[in-house]
Amino acid sequence: ELLEDDDEDLPLTELAEKLRNRGYAIPDENLYTKIDEDLATNSEASIQDIVSNVLNSNAEGSDDEDDSECEKKSVSTSDALKAIDDLRCFFTNSEAADEHLKAIRDLEKVVLTTKKSRQSCISEYFK
């Protein structure tokens, strides 16, 4: 048997020493604890590294560009309501139509509420 019952409660250093004396190859525990001491776990990025990372990510394209295109395009309330009506026609004959039609009604309410809460012109305050 490799270990005797009295060896079970030995500190690791004593157990490793006993195993070494019996001919087992046990690495030095101090060497083990210092094995990655010289490895770089982080590094400071130079300004040039940061700039090149940003330029590379911009060159690859991002989802932000798609969002900005959506913001630039203005859709009138009547166009939005027409699109909602088209969706209603599309989902009327589909399975689970009730669930989709309820969502479309909720969306229509939001569009109508947005229409009513249009931002007033600053010139209206000076009349």
Q: What is the gist of this entry?
A:
The chain has 127 residues and is an all-alpha fold.
Q: How would you describe this structure to a colleague?
A:
The chain has 127 residues and is mainly alpha-helical. The protein has a domain at 77-125. Helix content is 59%, strand content 0%. The chain is built from six helices and no strands. It has helices at residues 12-21, 29-33, 47-60, 63-72, 77-92, 97-116. It is elongated. The N and C termini lie far apart (101 Å). The model has no long low-confidence stretch (mean pLDDT 75).
**How are helices and strands ordered from N to C?**
HHHHHH
Average pLDDT figure: 75
Number of helices: 6
Task: Describe the main β-sheet briefly.
Answer: none
What's the alpha carbon Rg, rounded to whole Å? 35 Å
Region (Disordered): 55-75
Set down the secondary structure blueprint.
Elements: H1 12-21, H2 29-33, H3 47-60, H4 63-72, H5 77-92, H6 97-116
Provide tags for this entry.
single chain; 127 residues; mainly alpha; 6 helices; 0% strand
